[in-house]
Design goal:
Blueprint: H1 2-10, E1 34-36, H2 51-62, E2 68-71, H3 83-96, E3 102-106, H4 112-124, E4 129-133, H5 144-157, E5 162-165, H6 169-173, H7 177-184, E6 189-193, E7 199-201, H8 207-212, E8 217-219, H9 227-238, H10 242-266, H11 275-279, H12 285-293, H13 297-306
Parallel strand pairs: 1-8, 2-3, 3-4, 4-5, 5-6, 6-7, 7-8
Helix pairs in contact: 2-3, 3-4, 4-5, 5-7, 9-10
Length: 320
């Protein structure tokens, strides 16, 4: 029901022409359609960024049909990184990926000035667009006018397009529809993760539902370990094969729930920062093995069966 309320809220008639900007830049709007895994930042036991493991992960991700990668999203544990570390990781990812794949770099900070500065740094490091998280430390002051001012100032100043990231979700979804429309019409705002405009769904758990109401893709944590399957679900939706999409979506719900619970349980502990990334330094194979062990017998059998299919044979290293 919550999902239905979310999409009923953001997909009203007012959005029919939300992206028909009269700006001369409208025709050049960055196409963000597709699947993006929010990649983890691997760390050494001493807490430094493990660039060797990052490079190994990027080689694996490079073989998947992703539209691009989200760097310094929630899985990247950006609150535990210095400014230089955040920029260096983005630079390393951009150098490793083909130009056909987008790098969406998290640049959100609590202040507008800091977010503008970080967006400039991410662009200089090679990011194709930046993901701007909702400021939330002073949550009570994040009203409509404050958020519109913040996002507009960032969009006006950013040298690359921006995607608005609704976290915490209720902060952004409580904005009036006309406010979301106003933001969406900015020529440098190319999408909104989890809400409005060119939607990128925030989970593989409701990816089909998102596509059915007009989403163009997803930033899906599950794509880190089941990337081929998540991309296949997106392809089935965009090609109108809804019966097959429904079956695959059903299969992905349990693994997605298990993975998101695991990720949420490991991220954000101040006493043990960089927890998820440390355990994910050799992801995605080890994480896929964990996922299989923690799935029901039905899901486990399905995951093992998928490994026998010829079209997934060359991705076997990414799964158990």
């Amino acid at each position: 029901m919550m999902l239905l309320r979310i999409f009923n809220h953001v997909y009203r008639r007012e959005f029919a022409s939300v992206w028909r900007s009269e700006s001369e830049h409208a025709a050049k709007r960055l196409d963000i359609a597709g699947i993006y895994p929010p990649i983890a930042t691997p760390f050494t036991q001493k807490g430094n960024v493990d660039y060797q493991s990052l490079d190994k992960n990027l080689q694996r991700y490079g073989s998947m049909p992703f539209r691009g990668l989200v760097v310094q999203g929630s899985n990247g544990e950006y609150p535990y990184l210095t400014t230089e570390e955040r920029v260096d990781v983005v630079r390393r990812v951009r150098k490793s990926l083909p130009t056909s794949k987008l790098v969406m770099a998290g640049s959100g900070c609590e202040s507008t000035r800091a977010t503008i500065h970080m967006s400039e740094r991410m662009a200089s490091a090679g990011a194709d667009c930046v993901l701007v998280v909702t400021p939330c430390f002073y949550l009570g002051r994040m009203n409509s006018s404050a958020l519109i001012h913040h996002y507009t100032q960032v969009a006006d100043s950013s040298p690359v397009p921006i995607v608005l990231y609704s976290v915490p979700a209720n902060t952004f979804l409580d904005l009036p529809v006309d406010a979301v429309v106003k933001l969406s019409q900015h020529p440098n705002i190319v999408g909104i993760k989890d809400s409005g405009g060119d939607v990128l769904a925030g989970s593989a758990g409701f990816l089909m539902a998102a596509y059915s109401v007009g989403a163009v893709g997803g930033v899906c944590a599950l794509a880190n370990v089941l990337g081929q399957q998540v991309c296949e679900l997106a392809q089935l939706c965009t090609s109108g094969q809804w019966d097959k999409a429904r079956e695959l979506q059903y299969r992905l719900i349990e693994p997605n729930t298990a993975w998101e619970i695991s990720s949420g349980a490991q991220v954000g502990h101040a006493s043990t920062p960089k927890n998820l990334a440390s355990s994910s330094s050799h992801c995605p194979r080890e994480n896929a093995e964990w996922l299989t062990m923690h799935s029901s017998s039905d899901s486990r059998d399905w995951l093992e069966h998928m490994m026998l299919k010829p079209e997934y044979a060359h991705h076997a290293h990414m799964l158990p």
